[in-house]
Design the sequence.
């Protein structure tokens, strides 16, 4: 399972097949942020939202900029399409809270404000989750971006 | 270092084959001049771009050759496919692909070389007109029986199941069935069931509705719908997952199916030609193939014999491939010598006609001077116990000792001149003289 094969499956949006090689990369190189960014998307699209949220939370605490500075074109990021499809119901989700979390995660690859908007909605539905509060703190407009 | 890279790039630019490399993210990082010529894209337009966004071909998603190498660990040779060039023109290509690795043997990129085979299609049509039956070469009784059967079934719509080992020409038989059938003017859609992963195969065959799954951003018509009123060829049908076999059975029985993510039932009128190289009875026994589907497909069974069971066709096939490669390589090879023919006829040909074709092409590439293929031009696996050094001179009928000495005397022992007259290299004359004990000076 090579990194390159993980990249290929991600490029052709075969998320379930991309997971294993991407996980392997992170296992060998825990600081590998590019693989983490892709893996978060893969988890959201394969029904593993809890894993996606944990990894997302870990990454934005470590390097917030690496997600917000995503260039959709040069990184072939599927998030602009995914957020659009999720918002207009082309991709259906049963649980509103989970949908907000998923959109909050995916929107950060495109817009910090929209991402914060969805995390705030999720927080109203489940105020007990400390991770969400912490994410909102990081996403606040006055939050400094790291370099 | 920089100078070395320039030299390497110049070498790659001098190739007649198109060549590009990608990094581990599948972004193009080299594109040679032939690739520019074939595709119409300029280097500046493609460097740094994802290859899938440049070529925008279906095969990028389903059959990416570099991904295939990564998965199988084996390089890809002579894969026939189509790419979309600048200006949306589709061209047929044959490509080779390999993975580039770093010093730790980790893949860090890929290389694809390709050539435009539009000209090959012209050659194929020429050869098709010069063969026994729609491009198929066959004089043995088993083959002529198959040709007669195809003619007999021309007016039916019955499903056909073609069985035969790999490389026996099952697809050509399917082509002939379609071309002789009353549906010959309708669509003929080919699907290789073993190439696509199960999740893509369902969408490929039956189509999907917008939103059926992530990335299904618009409705997509499936192959069955596309083939309506025509014929579909399901190659490697035994590789189809069991769940898909159930869906296929329903299409055969009722002519109906639904696109993925849609509840509207579609009805089609499609004739099915299926083929497989696996032992289908065994597959049924092992629970890998549905028995009811087998009986539905096997209305007209055609068993294509392996090449070792139709040895009498081998000389005709050799002649056919010599004609083909003479056109392709611009050579004038007339025949094979007796020893080579004997080796070719007696070889077991596990890869059947495809292996024979590759062997003749190999011999063409190895053959530098002669107008005949000798046994020494053949791969070592086919010829055994042949001393090629000695054999080389024996088999070259243009050289014999008396004639050679006469010619050398006539031309003041000018070996270059004599070689030209004989149509061989100067070194061939020199080696021949050495082999008969006449040294330089």
Sequence:
């Amino acid at each position: 399972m090579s990194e390159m094969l993980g990249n290929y499956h991600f490029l052709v949006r075969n998320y379930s097949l991309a997971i294993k090689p991407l996980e392997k990369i992170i296992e060998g190189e825990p600081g590998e942020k590019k693989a983490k960014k892709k893996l978060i998307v893969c988890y959201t699209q394969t029904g593993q939202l809890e894993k996606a949220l944990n990894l997302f939370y870990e990454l934005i605490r470590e390097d917030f900029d690496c997600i917000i500075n995503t260039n959709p074109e040069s990184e072939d990021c599927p998030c602009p399409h995914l957020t659009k499809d999720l918002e207009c119901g082309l991709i259906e989700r049963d649980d509103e809270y989970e949908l907000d979390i998923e959109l909050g995660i995916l929107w950060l690859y495109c817009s910090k404000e929209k991402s914060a908007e969805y995390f705030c909605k999720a927080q109203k539905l489940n105020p007990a989750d400390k991770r969400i509060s912490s994410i909102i703190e990081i996403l606040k407009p006055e939050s400094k971006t790291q370099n | 270092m920089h100078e070395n890279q320039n030299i390497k790039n110049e070498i790659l630019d001098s190739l007649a084959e198109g060549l590009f490399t990608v990094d581990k993210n599948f972004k193009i990082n080299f594109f040679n001049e032939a690739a520019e010529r074939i595709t119409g894209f300029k280097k500046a337009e493609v460097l740094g771009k994802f290859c899938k966004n440049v070529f925008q071909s279906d095969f990028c998603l389903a059959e990416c050759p570099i991904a295939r190498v990564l998965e199988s660990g084996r390089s890809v040779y002579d894969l026939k496919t189509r790419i979309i060039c600048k200006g949306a023109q589709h061209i047929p290509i044959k490509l080779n692909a390999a993975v580039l690795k770093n010093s730790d043997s980790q893949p860090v990129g890929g290389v694809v070389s390709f050539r435009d085979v539009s000209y090959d299609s012209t050659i194929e049509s020429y050869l098709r007109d010069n063969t026994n039956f729609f491009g198929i070469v066959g004089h043995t009784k088993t083959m002529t029986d198959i040709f007669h059967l195809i003619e007999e079934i021309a007016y039916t719509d019955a499903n056909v199941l073609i069985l035969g080992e790999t490389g026996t020409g099952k697809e050509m038989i399917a082509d002939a069935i379609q071309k002789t059938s009353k549906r010959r003017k309708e669509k003929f859609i080919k699907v290789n069931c073993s190439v696509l992963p199960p999740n893509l195969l369902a969408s490929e065959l039956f189509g999907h509705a917008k939103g059926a799954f992530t990335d299904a951003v618009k409705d997509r018509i499936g192959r069955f719908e596309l083939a309506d009123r025509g014929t579909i060829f399901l190659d490697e049908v035994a590789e189809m997952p069991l769940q898909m076999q159930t869906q296929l059975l329903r299409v055969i029985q009722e002519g109906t199916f639904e696109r993925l993510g849609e509840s509207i039932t579609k009805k089609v009128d499609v004739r099915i030609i299926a083929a497989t190289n696996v032992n289908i009875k065994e597959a049924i026994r092992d629970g890998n193939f549905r028995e009811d589907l087998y009986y539905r497909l096997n209305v007209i069974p055609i068993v294509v014999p392996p090449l070792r069971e139709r040895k009498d066709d081998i000389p005709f096939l050799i002649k056919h491939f010599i004609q083909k490669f003479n056109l392709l390589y611009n050579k004038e090879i007339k025949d094979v010598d007796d020893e080579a023919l004997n080796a070719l006829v007696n070889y077991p040909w596990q890869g059947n006609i495809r292996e024979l074709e590759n062997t003749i092409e190999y011999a063409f590439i190895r053959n530098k001077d002669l107008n005949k293929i000798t046994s020494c031009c053949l791969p070592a696996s086919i010829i055994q116990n042949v001393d090629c050094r000695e054999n080389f001179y024996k088999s070259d009928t243009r050289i014999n000792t008396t004639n050679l000495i006469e010619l050398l005397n006539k031309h003041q022992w000018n070996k270059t001149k004599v070689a030209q007259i004989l149509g061989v290299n100067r070194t061939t004359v020199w080696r021949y003289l050495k082999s008969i004990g006449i040294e330089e000076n």
